[in-house]
Amino acid sequence: MYPFSFTKASDTAEALNAGRRGGRYIAGGTTLVDLMRETVERPETLVDISALPLREVTVTERGGLRIGALVRMAEAAAHAKVRTLYPVISEALELSASAQLRNMATIGGNIMQRTRCTYFRDVSADCNKRDPGSGCAARGGFNRTHAILGTSESCVATHPSDVAVAFAALEASVRLLGPDGTERSIPFADFLLRPGSTPHREQALRKSELITAVEIPALPRPLKSGYLKVRDRQSYEFALTSAAVALHIRGGVIREAKVAAGGVGTVPWKLPAVEQHLIGERPSQSLWAEAAQRAADGARPLEHNRFKAELLKRTVERQLRIVGGTK
After folding, report:
1. Contacts with 194 (C-beta within 8 Å, 6 or more apart), sequence order
2. 196, 232 Cβ separation under 8 angstroms
């Protein structure tokens, strides 16, 4: 462990001032502390923001939902409004990590977590995320769990968050507060960055910005939704593939479809081709199968993860069937 200083912010202004001076924000610490132990991250200053008033789940004026950045994963999963309005979020959270971690980890920290790529966490391996320009050991190494969508020559690591897949499907936005007090909102699809020429830059955050909440827009009712996670073991394991699905079916016709996949992309992967194939159609076994065939469009499998393209299609089809039902 490398030496670092630690300060606890008592209010938002104090946190932003510390961030402006180069401090790294920390709340539950379930990700950053691990990276510090492995010497992947070496922050000089940690700013504890756990005392800030960002712990509420509220319904927005238009009927959406705002989840404070410091709401614990377990609290969000159990919240009555989350479970009622967007069960896909509750299910994604409950399938994440372990109960102990969900009791500590926050929503803001969850979407900020870094990849679990073994080469990223092995400081002796080449990794452009950790050491820009060094190369990507995963491309020629063992890449069974790596991405097949959104990859580049510089990085093929997957984003590990489950709830981020639900947020991507629901077209959520991230609310941010800058060090000068300026607030802004950014679509979730733009918040997490694909690894182009700067794979070490993973979020569209400006210097010292603080995540204050994730906001889910109001969607037509009734809305059925759910999350399916396929993994090597039943618990405490990251997804090989996953699917977040939300469907608005009225008069026997699909009026709205929101679908995203996890475990296969460098970021949570929205599936617009699947969505477009569903809208205006009547639920049926054949429709789910036809739509799911578009889930892996654009996939670029590596040597050891070619199975993911077919597994993704099957995962999406199964979750469409679970959420949408059949006749």
Report:
1. 150, 152, 266, 267
2. no
Assess contact for 127 and 134: CB atoms under 8 A. yes
Q: Each residue of 5-22: b (16+ CB within 10 Å) or e?
A: eeeebeebebbbbbbeee
| Radius of gyration from C-alpha coordinates of the chain | 20
pLDDT tens digits, 317-327? 999 999 999 75
> Is residue 170 a contact partner of residue 219, using CB atoms and an 8 Å limit?
yes
Report yes or no: 37 and 1 within 8 Å, Cβ to Cβ: yes
8 A C-beta contact, residue 50 and residue 27:
yes
* 124-146: average pLDDT: 97
pLDDT tens digit string along 275-321?
999 999 999 999 999 999 999 999 999 999 999 999 999 999 999 99
DSSP code string of 232-265: SSSSS---SEEEEEEEEEETTEEEEEEEEEESSB
Q: What is the C-alpha separation between 226 and 211, in angstroms, rounded?
A: 26
149 vs 266: CA distance, rounded Å? 7
What residue type is assigned to position 306 of the chain?
R
Number of H helices, E strands in the chain: 14, 12
Q: Which residue has the tokens 């629901």?
A: 170
Residue type, 154: S
Nearest Cα to 136, choosing from 115, 155, 116, 152? 155
The rounded distance, in Å, linking the Cα atoms of 189 and 258 is 13
Distance, C-alpha 211 to centroid of its chain: 14
Q: How many CA atoms lie within 13 A of 214 on its CB side?
A: 29
Sign of CA dihedral 127, 128, 133, 136: positive
Contact assessment for residue 77 and residue 102, using Cβ atoms and an 8 Å cutoff: yes
Tokens 């996670």 — which residue? 229
